[in-house]
Amino acid sequence: MARFVDNPSFPAGLRVIAIDHDIIVLNTIEDMCNRYHYQVTKCNSASDALYLLERKDCYDVMLIDAHMPNMDVYDFVQNATLQLNIPVIMMAVDSTKSSIMKSIEYGACTYWTKPLAEEEVKIMWQHVVRNGSTENKEYEIVGSLVVQECRKRGREDANASKETLAKKTSLSWSPELHQQFLCAVNQLGLDKARPKMILKIMDVPGLRVGHVASHLQKYRIHLKRSADETKRGRTKSKWSDSFQAEWIDKVHSYDFQTKSIDQDRNDNLIQTELADQDRNDDFLAEWIDCGTGSYLHNLMA
DNA sequence: GATGGAATAT
DNA sequence: TATATTCCAT
């Protein structure tokens, strides 16, 4: 975004990558973009798209056909948005509610029905501005996931695949995401919670079973350590204490103003608030004990 | 083959 | 350390 702030000619020069298997569509897009002095790169195959997107920071916005041959476009869009932090606009002839919803769910910022309306192209830059306003030096915010940019920039081979894009990011378990995780775990019961079910209950776009499995593993280790400490009579180890405090503090600072849309989650937050008012110290213990006492008991036995 | 979980790598 | 990935058992 910085490149636009002091640029009086903006949005002229907006860098657009258009991906569609149909050359005619690409040419139409190019014509329209030219009228507004956008700089267009046309691309009519999945492999070209991957190749062009290998280098980051080359485009401000991506237009992509929802039905590219030889490509799982939704998966691609998901990975591309995570990695590139640019707005993605999906295009298709059909505009059923389900396809629009799916596009948005996978990270597209909007969905255009073909043939494209010139007005849409004209105001395309607004999506870039909106996207940029959520920009942060360290994080990209994608849906409800926060993804840390990968620091390493290893060389990549030419046959870049979606994995190449996907592998560069790592998920950060924000307090709110952890909260959702806890809700799911408690709903299932800690002893019965399995990654796949947790994932299903959390229902967070882009979150994968591997993410959950890894987090669950860490979470169990934390619980076990905490239980061991208690067993040995040391009230609370500095370590587990700071872990608890960290989550609690972040949850507090995060969300009590921005209530969740999701009613379940809202309820959980309210529950959290009440627990906090009553006994701040016992907050996490109460929360964990809810339905998971037996697991803790087993650990401590 | 799908899944879960521990071990291991990054 | 946090998270991702691999490896092995079920």
From TrEMBL:
Response regulatory domain sequence ranges: 15-129
Pfam families named in the record: Myb_DNA-binding, Response_reg
Domain of life the protein comes from: Eukaryota
Record-linked PROSITE patterns: RESPONSE_REGULATORY
GO BP term, pick one: cytokinin-activated signaling pathway
Gene3D superfamilies membership: 3.40.50.2300, Homeodomain-like
Main location: nucleus
GO MF annotations in UniProt: DNA binding
4-aspartylphosphate carried by residues: D65
Protein localization: Nucleus
Key words of the record: Nucleus, Phosphoprotein, Transcription, Transcription regulation, Two-component regulatory system
InterPro entries tied to this protein: ARR-like, CheY-like_superfamily, Homeodomain-like_sf, Myb_dom_plants, SANT/Myb, Sig_transdc_resp-reg_receiver
GO cellular component: nucleus
Protein name: Response regulator receiver domain protein
